[in-house]
Specification:
There is one protein chain. With 247 residues, the protein is an alpha/beta fold. The protein has one domain: Phosphatidylinositol (PI) phosphodiesterase (TIM Barrel, Alpha-Beta Barrel). It has 9 helices and 9 strands. The radius of gyration is 17 Å and the shape is globular. One of its GO terms (biological process) is lipid metabolic process. This is Glycerophosphodiester phosphodiesterase. Residues 8-245 form the GP-PDE domain. InterPro entries: GP_PDE_dom, PLC-like_Pdiesterase_TIM-brl.
Length: 247
């Protein structure tokens, strides 16, 4: 790696989703063991107000259960096996709640919490999400992100010290300029890696923004993003990226 390029953070996408069942404690543990500097995870609000860590709005794809998270109580969600679908060795893994992930992750490790918008209900999660993060004293480690930029703006207004990031898959003419339009301070951009280039990254960094492209897995793509000078790389294979950076 050129000495002129700052080493990007290794951010495990849903933990180490390429090698363990996504968004489980086993996946997050593996990412940390593989040298991840940060963890990316997704959250939904259960019917009884718990912050549940899962990508999809339903349990169908990543557990042996079914149903919409927003219509289920945590007790019902916990009955589901969230590991066996990936490999028999992960049988017994459960869908975690945010508090468990916060407890697992050492202070100082970046936590990129993606707020999922389950049919327009993302706003309902803001207060309980902030309460849980603040209760465990982890606000300084967290970057909240979402494809729902109105939700991010509202979260920032309710907690001005929170760091927010914008997820998007658009070939923007001016990435930094778009962030400025939000009307609140944006910490980071989280673009589809295929839709951002070296000049875009340079302009964003010059504007004081961090750039965390997603989800970069192929060696060639990882090398391209490193060369672009991004702040961090979200990947399903943290060990692969760490080895590339250390090689």
């Amino acid at each position: 790696m050129s000495s002129t390029i700052k080493r990007p953070l290794v951010i495990g996408h849903r933990g180490a989703a390429g090698e363990a069942p996504e968004n489980t404690l086993a996946s997050f543990r593996l990412a940390l063991a593989q040298g991840a500097d940060g963890l990316e995870l997704d959250v939904h609000l259960s019917n009884d107000g718990e912050i549940v860590v899962c990508h999809d709005a339903t349990l169908d794809r990543t557990t042996d259960g079914s149903g919409r998270i927003g219509e289920l109580r945590l007790e019902e969600i916990r009955r589901c096996d969230a590991g066996a679908w990936f490999h028999e060795s992960f049988r017994g893994e459960r869908v975690p709640v945010l508090a468990e992930v916060l407890e697992l992750t050492p202070p100082g490790v970046l936590l990129n919490i993606e707020v999922k918008d389950a049919e327009g209900s993302a706003g309902a999660i803001i207060d309980p999400l902030l309460e849980r993060v603040n209760r465990q004293g982890r606000l300084r480690d967290v970057v909240f992100s979402s494809f729902d930029h109105k939700c991010m703006r509202e979260l920032k207004r309710r907690e001005p010290t929170a760091r927010i990031g914008l997820l998007y898959a658009a070939n923007l003419a001016d990435h930094a300029g778009y962030a400025a339009l939000l009307g609140v301070a944006v910490h980071s951009l989280h673009p589809d890696y295929r839709l951002i280039g070296r000049d875009d990254v340079a302009a964003a960094v010059a504007a004081g923004l961090c750039v965390y492209p997603y989800t970069v897995n192929r060696i060639e793509a990882l090398r391209d993003m490193i060369a672009c000078g991004v702040t961090g790389i979200i990947t399903d294979f943290p060990a692969r990226l760490a080895a590339l950076l250390d090689g």
